[in-house]
Write a structure and sequence with these properties.
Layout (H helix, E strand, L loop, with lengths): L1 H22 L7 H24 L2 H4 L2 H24 L4 H12 L3 H13 L4 H27 L5 H13 L2 H15 L5 H12 L1 H13 L4 H5 L5 H22 L4 H11 L6 H8 L4 H32 L1
Helix pairs in contact: 1-6, 1-11, 1-16, 2-9, 2-10, 2-11, 2-15, 4-5, 4-7, 4-13, 4-14, 5-7, 5-13, 5-15, 6-7, 6-14, 7-8, 13-14, 13-16, 15-16
């Protein structure tokens, strides 16, 4: 519990800092939105570009792990999306809900946790999972949202509207540009890497402070009570790990470190990515913010339980 708490506690501290700043009016009504725009337009694109531009094919090509973690993530996203659509939600809102159920906090919690539990080798699965979640899943969600937001009935016009919107979206362009740069084999210049590092490092703290600011707004209570976050939290903390466990341990029978890391990473709480999109597109930000908070708090128990189970399995072999 202490290991997980030491990693998760700063998350709550940053959210609390934003909450206090809003309640004491140190930051105004538009602070949450403006800080979130900073993340969406500058910080997160820099992170996406950096991750894809510096990734080594030899490091990330682990087919069994990629399918186990990636398929589990996408299956949860698609299943939640379909469920929300069947219950009358719009495609845009359903896409954000699906992202909340499948978007594991691999960057801020997953990387340090894997390093502590598995040592230096654990950084490799953490990097792969981050690429899958932050680049692939995020891009798919953005595409679905943009499709849901367009109102053109003519198929040709609808496609044109979506393509135009995506071509201007930094969250889609950045990883594509980064992958294209990686193909050239040219290393990023030191000043460019420093620039990207500074922006990328600001992504998580800014997103968490923005979340705290949003929670501190007086209007949050009236808008957040329409939907319960518990279904999304349950899917994230229970459904996704169970599916990933089946794929990693039963279907692909991965080596111990890869199987356990896939399971641990899939059991991480919801990251801030869904909140960024919910706030940016003005969709269910209250629901998503509570999902992040509750899943992060609940992960203290679930992640600790998984680590105890993994240690028992190692001791028993």
């Amino acid at each position: 519990m202490y290991t997980v708490l030491a990693i998760v506690l700063p998350i709550f501290a940053l959210i609390l800092a934003g909450f206090i700043c809003r309640k004491t009016n140190r930051l105004g009504d538009q602070a949450a939105s403006e800080i979130n725009k900073l993340v969406v337009w500058l910080c997160l694109p820099a992170l996406l570009f950096k991750v894809t531009a510096t990734a080594s094919w030899a490091e990330i090509w682990q087919p069994g792990f990629i399918i186990s973690f990636g398929a589990g993530t996408l299956a949860i996203f698609v299943a939640t999306l379909a469920w929300r659509l069947c219950t009358g939600h719009s495609l845009a809102s359903s896409s954000i809900d699906g992202l909340s159920a499948g978007y594991a906090n691999t960057g801020y919690i997953g990387i340090p946790l894997c390093a502590i539990v598995f040592g230096h080798p654990g950084l490799q699965p953490a990097l792969i999972s981050t690429i899958i979640v932050v680049c692939m899943l995020f891009a798919i969600a953005v595409i679905c949202i943009e499709i849901g937001l367009q109102e053109e009935r003519h198929v040709g016009k609808a496609i044109a509207v979506v393509v135009k919107a995506l071509s201007k979206n930094p969250l889609v362009i950045a990883p594509i540009a980064g992958a294209a740069w990686a193909v050239t084999g040219i290393p990023l210049a030191h000043p460019v890497m420093s620039f990207l590092d500074m922006l990328a490092t600001a992504t998580t703290p800014c997103a968490l402070v923005s979340l705290g600011l949003f929670l501190g707004q007086k209007t949050i209570r009236s808008t957040a009570g329409k939907s319960s976050p518990w279904p999304l939290v349950t899917i994230k903390l229970v459904g996704q790990p169970l599916l990933t466990w089946f794929l990693a341990f039963k279907v692909f029978a991965l080596q111990s470190m890869w199987a356990n890391s896939a399971l641990l990473l899939s059991a991480l709480p919801t990251g801030t990515g869904p909140f960024m999109l919910a706030e940016f597109y003005r969709r269910e930000a209250g629901l998503i913010s509570r999902t992040i908070l509750i899943s992060t708090l609940g992960s203290l128990v679930t992640l600790t339980g998984l680590m105890i189970w993994m240690n028992a399995g190692v001791a028993g072999t």
